[in-house]
């Protein structure tokens, strides 16, 4: 017997204008869950996807088709979502139709016994008309199609960003679960036919954990589509919903038989193996009289003293297994226990600040662009690999933006396990949401389902009403009374509150404190706060960096000096540090066939196509990166961080004219900018409590926004971010005339006792005797040491006063544990990273293998080597890069991934402004 779970799907393009002999007319293999772009990539190659999709006409239909064999009978078809105008056909009969990519499907279909064809048809968006009036109060330069404000479809494919593709098809999968027949029920009372709808957890004031299981009748509910399900029949095929599902807000009429129906619910909560505790079990008989107004039933189970889930670096991530058994079968869930809240705000404490388990957190991470540029429903291992790479870079939070599609269960499970907090935007972008009752009711239903689906995931800590919904009218110059809309200030928070999800609600990103307060009020009470912007001059704007939630691009797109990240008082930047980030040299060679694509006519256009940019802008983010190259390496007066007491060089003399050399300077600049900015934000002296870079992954080959390139490999930005964001980290933050502080961070739950080893390199090419300073860094805290006075005297280590010739070239700080292992390391280049006519440092390197079989490269230099990085073949990844090596010092750079003899022989080490050298063989 074959079911949908294991079915082989075929994707065809149905278009009256295409050649019947075309490969797409005949069909190509496809995956479910999956999308059209993913199937095209797998069958035809990456280069043809955009071309094929561009030829879609107004009548083009994409059809997924498969054949299953079942015993027949009632089957429950379910899906998290299909994009966007879609039909489900069973035996060539339309049994369900949906006009939303985000509305869950849940339908009961009677299948014939034996073989049966199942089809999913994706119709053109324009096949469903939308109202033309009322017109939008403002327009977004990002989205040219005005009708999209009405359509519940991912915006990502409609914005002119590099690599952006439309989302078409069953991204949310398709399940078909056989249901028991009423003849199988031999109990004296009729069954309610309950299935789990959602599972959520909370931590009580007494420290106990509570698991709440919400159940609903089989027909007319929106269940948890991702629980591991064991049905009563031997077929557990997987699919989606069909047209007879009811709105959960509409009570279902009950007949006399239903009034006497009941259901026995068995729940078991099993602790993880590392927790010394016994399973907790509960059995409850629920009757029709226990139903809520939405025809749901809830059962609570108390777990005494559960082990708490913590973000990455702050503690462990214990996950409990919850088993729920009813007459319809058994479902299992993985849940965690944690509390989350926003700190109180007042005149002296503005903006969003999160507390997990009543402990303040500094959230850092990235805006999620997906794990696969071609496939929303990415391969689970690829999703995990990308998240693990962000985790290794010190990230503690991932934001899924409103311009994207919702993510799969594989994504959320991985975030639970890795301790990556999730900020989930509702799929709303910078457009005027329609003030239409039917549209708003559909959105509330969508958000309730989304919040219910994510409620079992301890990683989900924030749900926001979308991306730039409030900011868009501000920047469009609309009056203040149009800045706020009930859709995000009331509808979204209310729907999240009705789902009883334990999260912090944000109306939209960015927003003001007043907006945060209004959303919290709606979340708690279901009512609007009654406050509205008046016609008077506003006190603050939703775009202010120190208020509410910001999108901070002062450092980045707006070209401000690095100190602006502090002087602006950034509190929580849900987007930040937007640059065009070039991939590493090996990735550039692989993607473009040359080290300098702009020096090669054949590759220059391909490189420019991948440059990060915003629609309508006359500049690109490659221009932004060039600003900081100039400031850090060429122009003394433009940035205090580059302030050596020697004249700056002109652009023509500094960073070279060839593309290869320019890319090396861009990588060095970005490593410096990302480390310094995050270190400034992480400091306890900073008001900042969160910053997320734009973005996690570039969506096209070339210099995109991602700290990871399009294939998921680290970039220079990732290396800089990692040094400042690791759970245990060390970073210099020069304070000008107030010296050279070293900040030591410890996110762990216990104090850290270690030695801070300071080494000073002089301009004469040698190093002074290291100075060891015992330090104890408090749990989840910070310690600051003044390097310039650490030996009991004052040394102008940063040449801040500029009197006479510079004496020092660099200062290194190593945090060493009692066993001698280096926990963290940083080097500050005296006066900034620029060096005029720097001598060749005499790089040397060789492979080293540990007793555990792990590889690293030992790098040494006779002189100061700046921005040292490895050039490795595909499959191998350096775990550190763009480090500075002091004269006579040996630095070990760990290497992970697939590493062959040929790969080790091809590896090279490079430093800024000097030729690369090969990495020598392992010493005997």
Question: Which keywords apply here?
Answer:
17 helices, 6-stranded antiparallel β-sheet, 924 residues
User: What is the 3D shape?
Assistant: globular
SS class: alpha+beta
Number of strands: 43
Helix share of residues?
Answer: 10-25%
Radius of gyration: 29 Å
**Strand percent estimate:** 25-35%
Q: Please report the distance between the alpha carbons of the first and last residues.
A: 60 Å
Quick one: biggest sheet?
8 strands, parallel
Overall average pLDDT: 90
| Widest sheet, order of strands | 25-24-23-22-21-28-27-26
pLDDT below 50 for ≥5 consecutive residues: which ranges? 231-256, 637-653
**Helical run tally:** 17
Set down the secondary structure blueprint.
Blueprint: E1 9-14, H1 23-26, E2 28-30, H2 36-44, H3 46-54, E3 61-70, E4 73-79, E5 85-90, E6 93-98, E7 105-111, E8 114-123, E9 175-178, E10 194-203, E11 209-217, E12 228-231, H4 256-259, E13 262-270, E14 280-287, E15 297-303, E16 320-326, E17 329-335, E18 340-342, E19 354-356, E20 359-360, E21 363-367, H5 380-392, E22 397-400, H6 409-418, E23 421-425, H7 437-454, E24 460-464, H8 471-475, H9 486-498, E25 504-506, H10 513-525, E26 550-552, H11 564-567, E27 572-576, H12 585-592, H13 601-609, H14 621-633, H15 659-682, E28 690-693, H16 716-725, E29 728-732, E30 741-746, E31 752-762, E32 771-777, E33 781-786, E34 808-816, E35 822-829, E36 844-849, E37 855-860, E38 865-871, E39 876-878, E40 883-885, E41 890-897, H17 901-906, E42 908-911, E43 914-918
């Amino acid at each position: 017997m074959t079911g949908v779970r294991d079915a082989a799907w075929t994707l065809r393009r149905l278009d009256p204008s295409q050649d019947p002999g075309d490969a797409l007319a005949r069909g190509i293999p496809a995956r479910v869950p999956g999308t059209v772009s993913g199937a095209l990539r797998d069958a035809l190659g990456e280069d043809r996807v955009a071309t094929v999709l561009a030829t879609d006409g107004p009548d083009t239909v994409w059809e997924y088709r498969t054949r299953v064999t079942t015993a027949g009978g009632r089957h429950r078809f379910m899906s998290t979502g299909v994009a966007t105008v879609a039909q489900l056909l069973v035996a060539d009969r339309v049994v369900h139709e949906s006009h939303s990519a985000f509305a869950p499907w849940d339908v009961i279909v009677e299948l014939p016994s034996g073989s049966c064809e199942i089809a999913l048809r994706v119709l053109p968006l324009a096949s469903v008309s939308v109202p033309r009036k009322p017109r939008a109060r403002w327009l977004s330069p990002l989205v040219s199609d005005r009708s999209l404000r009405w359509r519940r479809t991912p915006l990502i494919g409609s914005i002119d960003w590099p690599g952006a593709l439309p989302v078409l098809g069953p991204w949310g999968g398709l399940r078909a679960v056989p249901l028991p027949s009423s003849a199988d029920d031999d109990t004296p009372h009729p069954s309610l036919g309950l299935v789990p709808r959602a599972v959520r957890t909370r931590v009580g004031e007494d420290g106990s954990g509570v698991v709440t299981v919400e159940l609903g009748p089989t027909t007319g509910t929106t269940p948890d589509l991702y629980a591991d399900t064991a049905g009563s029949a031997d077929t557990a095929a997987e699919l989606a919903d069909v047209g007879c599902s009811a709105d959960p807000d509409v009570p279902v009429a009950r007949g006399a038989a239903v009034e006497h129906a009941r259901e026995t619910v068995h729940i078991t909560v099993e602790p993880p193996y590392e927790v010394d505790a016994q399973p907790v079990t509960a059995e409850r008989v629920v009757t029709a009289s226990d139903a809520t107004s939405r025809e749901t039933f809830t059962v609570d189970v108390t777990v005494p003293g559960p082990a708490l889930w913590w973000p990455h670096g702050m503690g462990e991530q214990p996950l409990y297994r919850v088993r729920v058994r009813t007459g319809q079968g058994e479902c299992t869930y993985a849940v965690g226990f944690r509390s989350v809240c926003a700190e109180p705000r007042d005149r002296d404490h503005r903006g969003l600040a999160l507390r997990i388990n009543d402990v303040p957190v500094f959230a850092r991470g990235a805006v999620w662009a997906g794990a696969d540029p071609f496939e929303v429903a990415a391969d689970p291992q690829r999703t995990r690999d990308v998240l693990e790479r962000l985790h290794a870079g010190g990230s503690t939070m991932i934001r899924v933006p409103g311009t994207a599609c919702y993510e799969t269960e594989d994504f959320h499970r991985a975030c639970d396990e890795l301790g990556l907090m999730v900020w989930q935007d509702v799929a709303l972008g910078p457009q005027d949401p329609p003030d239409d009752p039917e549209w708003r009711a559909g959105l509330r239903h969508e958000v309730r389902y989304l919040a219910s689906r994510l409620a079992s995931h301890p990683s989900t800590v924030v749900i926001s009403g979308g991306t730039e919904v409030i900011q868009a009218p501000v920047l469009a110059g609309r009056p203040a009374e149009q800045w706020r809309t009930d859709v995000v200030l009331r509808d979204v928070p209310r729907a999240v509150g009705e789902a009883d999800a334990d999260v912090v609600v944000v109306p939209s990103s960015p927003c003001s404190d007043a907006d945060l307060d209004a959303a919290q009020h709606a979340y708690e009470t279901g009512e609007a706060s009654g406050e509205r912007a008046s016609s008077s001059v506003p006190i603050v704007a939703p775009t202010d960096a120190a208020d509410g939630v910001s999108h901070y691009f002062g450092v980045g797109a707006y070209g401000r000096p690095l100190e602006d990240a502090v002087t602006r008082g950034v509190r929580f930047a849900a987007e930040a540090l937007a640059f065009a980030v070039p991939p590493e040299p090996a990735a550039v060679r692989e993607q473009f066939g040359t080290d300098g694509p702009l020096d090669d006519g054949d590759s220059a256009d391909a490189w420019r196509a991948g440059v990060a940019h915003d629609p309508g802008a006359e500049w690109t983010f490659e221009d932004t990166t060039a600003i900081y190259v100039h400031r850090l390496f060429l122009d003394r007066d433009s940035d205090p961080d580059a302030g050596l007491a020697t004249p700056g060089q002109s652009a023509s003399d500094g960073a070279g004219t060839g593309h290869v050399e320019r890319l090396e300077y861009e990588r060095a600049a970005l490593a410096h900018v990302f480390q310094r900015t995050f270190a400034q934000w992480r400091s306890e002296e900073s008001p900042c409590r969160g910053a997320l870079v734009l973005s996690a992954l570039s969506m096209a080959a070339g210099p995109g926004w991602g700290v990871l390139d399009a294939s998921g490999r680290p970039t220079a930005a990732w290396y800089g971010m990692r040094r400042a964001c690791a759970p245990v980290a060390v970073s210099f933050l020069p304070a000008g005339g107030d010296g050279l502080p070293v900040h030591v961070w410890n996110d762990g739950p216990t104090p850290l006792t270690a030695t801070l080893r300071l080494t000073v390199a002089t301009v004469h090419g040698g190093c002074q005797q290291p100075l060891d300073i015992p330090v104890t860094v408090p749990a989840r805290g910070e310690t600051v040491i003044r390097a310039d006075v650490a030996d009991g005297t004052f040394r102008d280590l940063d040449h801040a006063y500029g009197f006479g010739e510079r004496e020092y070239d660099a200062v290194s700080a190593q945090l060493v544990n009692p066993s001698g292992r280096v926990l963290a390391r940083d080097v500050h280049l005296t006066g900034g990273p620029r060096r005029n006519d720097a001598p060749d440092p005499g790089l040397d390197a060789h492979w080293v293998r540990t007793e555990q079989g792990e590889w690293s490269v030992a790098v040494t230099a006779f002189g100061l080597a700046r921005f040292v990085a490895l050039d490795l073949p595909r499959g191998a990844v350096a775990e550190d890069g763009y480090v500075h090596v002091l004269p006579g010092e040996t630095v070990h750079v760990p290497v992970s991934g697939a590493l062959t003899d040929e790969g080790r022989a091809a590896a090279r080490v490079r430093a800024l402004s000097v030729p690369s050298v090969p990495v020598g063989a392992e010493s005997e």
